[in-house]
Design brief:
The complex is a heterodimer of chains A (about 425) and B (about 350). Chain A contains 16 helices and 16 strands. Chain A is α/β, with parallel strands linked by helices and about 425 residues long. The longest helix of chain A has 30 residues. In chain B, helix 7 links the parallel strand 5 and strand 6. The chains are: A alpha/beta (about 425), B alpha/beta (about 350).
Chain lengths: ~425, ~350
Amino acid sequence: MLKQTEGSHAVAEAVALCRPEVICAYPISPQTHIVEGIGEMVKSGELKDCEFINVESEFAAMSVAIGSSATGARTYTATASQGLLFMAEAVFNASGLGLPIVMTVANRAIGSPINIWNDHSDSLSQRDCGWMQLFAETNQEALDLHIQAFKLAEELSLPVMVCMDGFILTHAYERVDMPTQAQVDAFLPPYVPRQVLDPSDPVSIGAMVGPEAFMEVRYLAHAKQMQALERIPELAAEFKAIFGRETGGLTHTYRSEDAETMIVAMGSVLGTIKDTVDEMRDAGVKIGVLGITSYRPFPLKNVREALKNAKRVVVLEKSLAVGKGGIVSSDVRMALSGIQLHGYTVIAGLGGRAITKKSLHALFDKAGRDELEPLTFLDLDWTTVNKQLERERSKRRSGPAAENILRDLGTVASRIA
Amino acid sequence: MSMQPVKFYQTGTFTVGNRLLAPEERSVQSNMERTNSLNSGHRACQGCGEALGARYAIDAAMKATNRQLIAANATGCLEVFSTPYPESSWQIPWIHSLFGNTAAVATGIAAAIKVKKAKGQGGQHGDIRVVAQGGDGGTTDIGFGCLSGMFERNDDVLYICYDNEAYMNTGVQRSSATPPAARTATTMPVGEHPGNSFGQGKFVPAIAMAHGIPYVATATVADLRDLEYKVTKAMSFHGARYLHILVPCPLGWGTASHDTIRMARLAKETGLFPVFEAEYGELSSSSPIRHRLPVEEYLRPQKRFAHLFGKSPAYATIARIQGMADKNIRKYGLRFTGGA
């Protein structure tokens, strides 16, 4: 059914259609609307046979999820940013134990400086935690990916993060096609756990594992994600058969035929990039796009296939590996091993900095001339940066950097005026 | 019910042998159908108070729940010595997740059980119940946030803390349950104030009571019948329950393996460890001290307090510890006033 709704609420409804049994909620922006929405559905009785638990921290949220999933309940939670870091120990534990929890990450920057706006620092900081990570481009895709995520997680006994851009998607009202319960039931079978805490068949879970078996256990986690590389496209096809939509999969290309310049990105910024590419294509520029939906497992083959004929690749990412440059670009470089082309890393949109078509036009033009630096920070205010660097050179007790910069910039209102 | 013939041994305690009791009054451990939930063959040290406490506690909980029990376990001695595979000693469904999240894991288990029951997928032999267990480090320090959250929500979990008063698994470091003056690897008996500081630490049973949860109790491994009784009673309540058991550690305390029960009894009889029950935040019973002893009797056999004795005893420090015992006796009504 088509409806105009908020991204968070669309996800809440989609999760409810998946018949979750235990949901843990701890408030952190920008994921709050999702668990608020589900909480109301549980309390009103609309969502039956579901325990909604208001926990005292994200660490507890993931820990409660571990307990309920290990007891055979379909389990969901949502978090963002600092919350994901606060639960990090339990995040690794959940995947290590092989528990198919589904969690929304409403992507948000990580402090310090504290910042509530969107970038991908949070989920990318957990890129090696053993969870699968699917990135949504639109609210429709976010909604659909949650339904696929439960099936993927439960088939493989591995947890899945569905990553959607905080505010840009979570708080945007747009049209979505909300599936029916019958459709979701046809796609998603009841959860049958591989391991379960059951007094009629007692098992120990979470025992000490020494050097004699640790490598094998870890390898199997990797092997499962390699299976996911096969399964994710199949699930997208099964999804299409029931819901009639192309959603999910590992990667998507856009106008990439004969493209000399390929832009690689994840999440909602792909929309702006595609609009920019449309305009450039109209002007005769051979430019195309590769969107990565599955960041973990990382689809090396698909990425290589999509990029191998290009002359240059620009990875535009909302994350920063401090001291090196890009995170996603490292993965892309690995996919292109042995292929000679110009590779550019563009760090963009950190902490919610707007990524505009105007900036992208200029950026892609420069890339097309191969005049781009290997590492570029899109729309970085060099005046501000240099002022602070000068301050630090001239005075030992230069004070806190972020606050100095804010003072230099003046109030946000004055800048808008 | 098949019963094991139990001989009566004079143990020097106030316990009576099982053969003098009616079958229904006999201990869980004396029953041949006890579950041995924590089976023999684990790797605990000789004289481990925690292994003893856990065996009695979990077997009693198993009996009380008709064997419909799931356990969540914090990282720590109990987890490590019981699980090196394929030698798991646990005969019950058991999960270890992390050091600091056991109460929350148990909450998740309880939530799943509740949903499954509502869907008609519950236990085939009665309601499934949950225990969470951890040492003092996993309970009073790193797991305290999750513990308080579980209490506050009144989740249907019995949390058992096996308190041996320091981080024994990592090599005897101070926890917030370490008593003043005690030597640990991080509170060495050196300097002007040797051992652990006075004026620090927390007594979690009192904090549990402050949450107003249905049942809070303390126990020691010196009175295992009392321990079984308290576990059984705890399982008669729904909602959050907390049982704090003093479990001497021969390694960390520097006591002889055969003195574990004696040390637990002395902790109680000196008043340093108050044994009581509380319901809904109010004290409901106290185990009186029958032969009150000065704290020296408890402190002297322990190497962790050795620096208080020797050539020039630390009289002032011992007096301060005696003051703590006296305060417990007043606060928890531990003075024996006659009667059975």
